[in-house]
Amino acid sequence: MTLAHIPAAAPESAAAHVTGTAVLQLSQVARTYPGQPPVHALLPLDLTVRAGEYVAIVGPSGSGKSTLLNLLGLLDRPTGGSIQLAGVDASLLKERERTALRGRNIGFVFQAFHLLAHRTAVENVALAQLYIDVKPAARRAAAVEALVRVGLGHRLHALPSTMSGGERQRVAIARALVNAPALILCDEPTGNLDTTTARSVMDLLEELNRTGVTLLVITHDPEVAGRARRSIRIRDGRLQADPPSGPGAAA
Q1: pTM for the model
Q2: 207 Cβ contact partners less than 8 Å away, ≥ 6 residues apart
Q3: Which of 1, 14, 37, 240 stands 20 to 30 A from 87 (CA)?
Q4: Which helix (H) or strand (E) segment is 184 a member of?
């Protein structure tokens, strides 16, 4: 499969938000690390995330969260099963094609923000567009729009060192949004924030989800997981769904 066969993020996202089609689909995905004995970090599991969903995967340390995150984000390959992202089977792609698929269809939000210290907020967000086909003249406008969307239109030229933790995480969320991905994947998005700021960031994620953004949050925090519309527990490499929860869940 060539890059020409990989769907661009914006059209796929727009169509998916209307139809509720599967954005991410794992079928009997497993991950075993070699050794004596081998470590079965993830046992065969199925998972489907549809457009517009807000899903949390919650579990303690050592449960398999990090392994699952690397597979969901196409940062690692499973030892069994298949992963489809935006309708494309990633197992059929070469590494360069996987990178392109990931860059077009997944926005990442990490616990540690991962902002470049000597770049302004708008520059940090614009850098995310280097991996997709966006003309340089359009990058800044898109970055400004994303920052305005997360409530940072007044902090476009601020450096990370002059920002609060909550502002830095909002810049990271804007960076994840700027390419209009099919999915935003959050890894412990409130792990470095105080309680009040964490709730503000979770409020923002809920607001984005209400506008159609598809979210998958991986966390150890039950309170964070409880804000999602669907919560899934992971333990000893196995998934177990909880009843629907969060705003808008069925009674």
Answers
A1: 0.84
A2: none
A3: 240
A4: strand 183-187
